[in-house]
Amino acid sequence: MISTGSVVDYAEKVRQLVKPERYEHILRVAELAAQIAKANALDEGKAYLAAILHDAARDLSGERLQELAPPENEIERNHPLALHGRAGRRLAQEWGVEDEEVLEAIEGHVYGVSPDHKIGMALYIADVSEPGRGVNHEIREMALSGRLEEAYQKAVICKVRYLQQKGITPHPRTWAAYQALQQSRDAG
């Protein structure tokens, strides 16, 4: 069980690292992730904690991101912001978070997670569909109605299509998540 005091402490650490607008986004994502978790019979505390921590590294310099999460490929070398999920995981670990499910969700919110990672799915969906973004309402409603896997699949497909339309090569981990979803859909 995650204590409320520790979540408050983590939230304060994050608040000190990010811009005020980013912190407001983080709070909206945390509330939505907990709601999605509840609607899908998942651990609300884990979803909330992962969401509070998901963008902890988002406003760090490219240099600091690369220190926390050394680039693994060309995309990460050219676009250090792609590292903020892995860097956020590292910060969370440094702050004492040990729950692997929470850590994987933090890292995976940028790239996507495997189809069996439910807390990661809840966070990914909450991040792309929180009301402040003004987009992906149908994905949010799908997840809140207990259709987590379907909402996650739609969210990843939308992200890949968006990147392709912009002429941006998706991150290899995003491709892997996309392909895993395609395979699970074809198998089902």
Automatic annotation (TrEMBL):
Reactions the enzyme catalyzes: P(1),P(4)-bis(5'-adenosyl) tetraphosphate + H2O = 2 ADP + 2 H(+)
SUPFAM superfamilies reported for this sequence: HD-domain/PDEase-like
Enzyme class: hydrolase
Keyword Transport: no
Protein transport recorded as keyword: no
Recorded GO MF terms: bis(5'-nucleosyl)-tetraphosphatase (symmetrical) activity; metal ion binding; nucleotide binding
Highest taxon, organism lineage: Bacteria
EC number: 3.6.1.41
A Pfam short name: HD
Domain HD: 22-132
Keywords tagged on the record: Hydrolase, Iron, Metal-binding, Nucleotide-binding
PANTHER family: BIS(5'-NUCLEOSYL)-TETRAPHOSPHATASE, SYMMETRICAL, SLR1885 PROTEIN
Name the record gives this protein: bis(5'-nucleosyl)-tetraphosphatase (symmetrical)
Species in which this protein is naturally found: Meiothermus ruber
Lineage: Bacteria, Thermotogati, Deinococcota, Deinococci, Thermales
